[in-house]
Design a protein that fits this description.
This protein is α+β, with helices and mostly antiparallel strands. The protein is built from 15 helices and 37 strands. Strands 3, 4, 6, 7, 8, 9, 12, 13, 14 and 15 form a 10-stranded mixed sheet that branches. Strand 3 and strand 4 form a beta hairpin. Helix 5 packs across helix 6. The longest helix is centred in the middle third of the chain and has 22 residues.
């Protein structure tokens, strides 16, 4: 490889070799003896350089401009720690895992022939050296000194390469390195603008940390295409791409990036059709296609073609994309139909299934006809909707009818009516049930039982932990929220023990991992993967409630439906508020809610403890936490620790609910026994009160858009119990809509929320218990 290439005024080119090696996915070596100072200057005399040769067989194809932002050095990081585990071996910690490169600055040259090497790594070993645990990529940059005399500091930045790293181990450095000046790390990625932001209260909530590592993994894995990891394969695996797509669409401006990537998928589809006509229409597992993975793609991977196409219309209103790629997506769909089992009515071909699930002992590759058929149906739904919008009535009927019959086949093949469970030998309930719920195939009269069995698996069998692979992970939390168990979803999302996102954070992760497994010093696969990152879209869509309406075009119609709930005592998941904004083509859409502060009381054993509501008219509506034993935490964040009287909740509810205040004696006599002998006990209680609003919700609807604002009802209450105000104007009273607010045109109630129809503007909704 030659660097640089200079063009003379007569149009000829000259070049000089300075790189001994350069590989985008491995290493770079720079020979200083071949460099001449000031060669970048227009006045430099390059007459001694060799003329560039003309390529005998130039590339063929269509040259087109890249419809995507460039890859740039977006953020610089100085080291936060510098150590020397052995003489002359220096380790820099930049505090953030990333895709990137380093700039090396040396004030004086080394001896001729000396190599200054930079070894990049994601984790450390306990002995203080880096642990570069990838055998198929060197991630090594080398500067080779010659006998040149330099008039200024030497600055080396590798070309045509990037690495995945948080740590850099340097050897051969001439002198003593500086913590902040010698090495500077640069986070490199496609320069996508951050268009979405979400924050949770309190500020130290684990969800804020998980959102950070998810964003960092997303950016690390978009280097012109969505990749799997920035240090090992760096390939465009479509499964990773589709499962993280809604996360990226909510966090970043992906219009240009996905426009370009859709063209990449089409190019690969054309390439396969030419090479293997019998599977024409198929797309591969990896795009661009250079025979990594398989073709045809696993259905859960190839679905990226269809789903990203659909989401581009929903999020950006890009109807040109619908028309441009309709034929390609239809050909892909028809190839899947040909691949399906015409006897069972299912798409049984599967290569990866619910990849990297912990079900049945773990291990990644487990095929699943249920997963393949699930995505088969989703793609037919998307194609039928697009066909209808494009006026292709025959196609719309064809794919709609096939989706209907495949749903029936799905229900017949996978539903065990006796167990009230969806069964696939390679899946557990945490994946099979959410996929069935998402498809809407669970019989209405059996939904409660099926969901109940899912909850039993989460709570009893897995003690509020997930065991899903990358497919189940995306759908589990949304379906729990939708079907009345948002508190369980919050408990899962807020976990900090294995396996969970929070566990990764506790093990010093600054990007998502490829596996639930591992610890601070033990790497299991990649430490910078986005495939488990689908939960960020749940943050926006369910916790904050920001959703494009199902039939909308680019945020023209919006559904704002935040899910707000009290945490399950002892399970975690308390959240005091959330604030999310997405900048759309129409302007900003925002949802921000704040939970009212609970009434709390604490005291030591044998002390009288008073629990009271603020204000003169408030009454205790519900006890949300109670523990006589060894509770820990503070108001809004209590949890059970070591021991707790099993009678805590029942005793305090019976004594206090319905009163303005109550006095509780924190004694073994009152609670009917000693939960832990020879231990000094205490009491912690948390309650909600009827006075005031249990929460306040602020929203912004952009100009030219309309929204359905769904104000959630506190659990166990009905719409008749609440008065709702928008600002100072009452809009719901006596279980009916009250006209008068110019921005609110209608309202209706369900068993779980009151829905208001609103136009563009800013609104603040609050609930007060109706007298």
């Amino acid at each position: 490889m030659s660097l640089p290439l200079l063009w003379d005024t007569d149009g000829t080119a000259r070049h000089q070799y300075m790189l001994a090696a350069a590989h985008c996915c491995s290493s770079a070596a720079f020979i200083s003896t071949m460099e001449t100072e000031f060669w970048e200057s227009t006045l430099y005399n390059d007459s001694s350089w060799a003329a560039a040769a003309t390529v005998a067989t130039p590339p063929t194809g269509v040259l087109s401009w890249p419809a995507i932002q460039p890859v740039r050095k977006v953020q610089a990081y100085a080291a936060i720690k510098l150590s020397e585990p052995a003489p002359g071996v220096f380790v820099f910690d930049f505090g953030q895992n990333m895709a990137g490169i380093c700039t090396l600055t040396m004030d004086s040259p080394g001896e001729p022939g000396t190599n200054v090497t930079l070894l990049h790594a994601e984790i450390m070993s306990p002995n203080g050296f880096v642990n570069h645990h990838y055998g198929n990529t060197a991630e090594l940059s080398t500067y080779i000194f010659g006998d040149k005399v330099y008039s200024q500091p030497i600055v080396f930045e590798p070309k045509f390469v990037y690495s995945g790293f948080r740590y850099v181990q340097m050897t051969g450095f001439p002198g003593t390195p500086s913590l902040t000046r010698t090495l500077v790390a640069h986070f490199v990625h496609t320069d996508m603008e951050m268009s979405g932001n979400i924050e949770f209260a309190p500020n130290d909530h684990i969800l804020n940390s998980v959102q950070h590592i998810t964003r960092a993994a997303s950016l690390s894995n978009f280097i012109d295409i969505p990749t799997d990891c920035p240090q090992r394969e760096r390939r465009g695996w479509l499964g990773d791409a589709q499962l993280s797509a809604e996360t990226t669409l909510n966090n970043f401006d992906m219009g240009a990036s996905y426009t370009k990537f859709m063209r990449d998928i089409l190019d690969s589809q054309i390439q396969i059709a030419k090479a293997t006509p019998k599977i024409a229409g198929a797309v591969p597992d990896c795009v661009p296609w250079y025979h990594h993975g398989g073709a045809p793609a696993d259905p859960a991977w190839g679905t990226a073609y269809t789903l990203i196409w659909q989401w581009m219309y929903q999020y950006y209103g890009d109807d040109r994309m619908l028309a441009t790629y309709y034929d390609g997506v239809a050909q892909h769909m028809d190839q899947l139909i040909a691949e399906s089992n015409h006897t069972s009515g299912l798409l049984e071909f599967s290569r990866y299934g619910d990849w990297c699930s912990l079900q049945h002992g773990g291990g990644c590759r487990k095929s699943s006809a249920l997963v393949s058929s699930f995505y088969f149906i989703l793609q037919m739904d998307a194609l039928a909707n697009a066909a209808a919008m494009l006026g292709k009535a025959d196609d719309a009927k064809k794919y709609s009818d096939l989706a209907k019959s495949t749903r029936e086949a799905f229900q017949g093949a996978f539903y065990d009516k006796d167990q009230q469970m969806y069964i696939d030998p390679n899946l557990g309930p945490q994946t099979s049930v959410p996929l069935a719920l998402f498809l809407g195939v669970v019989p209405e009269d059996q939904v409660e039982a099926v969901v109940g069995n899912l909850i039993t698996d989460i709570v009893t069998a897995n003690t509020y932990h997930m065991n899903t692979g990358i497919v189940g992970t995306k759908y589990l939390l949304p379906m729990l929220s939708k079907y009345g168990h948002h508190d369980v979803a919050m408990a899962l999302a807020s976990q900090t023990t294995f396996p969970s996102w929070g566990y990764m954070v506790m093990q010093t992760a600054t990007t998502l991992w490829e596996s639930w497994k591992g610890d601070e010093f033990t790497a299991v696969s990649s430490r910078n993967h986005i495939m488990f990152g689908g939960q960020s879209s749940w943050y926006y869509q369910y916790i904050a409630g920001l959703n494009v309406a199902p039939v909308s075009k680019g945020w023209e119609s919006i559904v704002i439906a935040p899910y707000i709930t009290q945490a399950i005592p002892g399970a975690g998941g308390d959240l005091a508020g959330a604030d999310a904004t997405i900048i759309t083509a129409r302007g900003s859409v925002r949802s921000s809610w704040t939970m009212a502060s609970p009434a709390c009381a604490t005291g030591t054993e044998n002390q009288d403890v008073t629990l009271a509501c603020a204000g003169p008219s408030g009454t205790i509506a519900n006890i949300t936490f109670a523990s006589f034993g060894t509770p820990k935490g503070s108001c809004g964040n209590f949890s059970i620790y070591n021991c707790s009287s099993p009678n805590s909740m029942d005793k305090i509810k019976a004594l206090c609910v319905g009163k303005h205040s109550c006095s509780i004696t924190a004694s073994t006599k009152f609670f009917g026994g000693d939960p832990c002998f020879d231990v000094k006990k205490s009491l912690a209680v948390q309650a909600t009160c009827t006075a005031g609003s249990p929460y306040t919700i602020s929203i912004t609807v952009p100009v030219g858009s309309s929204a359905l604002m769904r104000v959630p009802l506190p659990k166990g209450t009905s719409s008749s119990q609440w008065l709702v105000s928008e600002g100072s104007t009452v809009v719901w009273k006596s279980n009916a809509f009250v006209a008068g607010d110019p921005g609110v045109s209608a309202a209706a109630a369900t068993s779980t929320y009151i829905e208001f129809t609103v136009g563009s503007g800013n609104y603040v909704f609050s609930l007060v218990a109706e007298e």
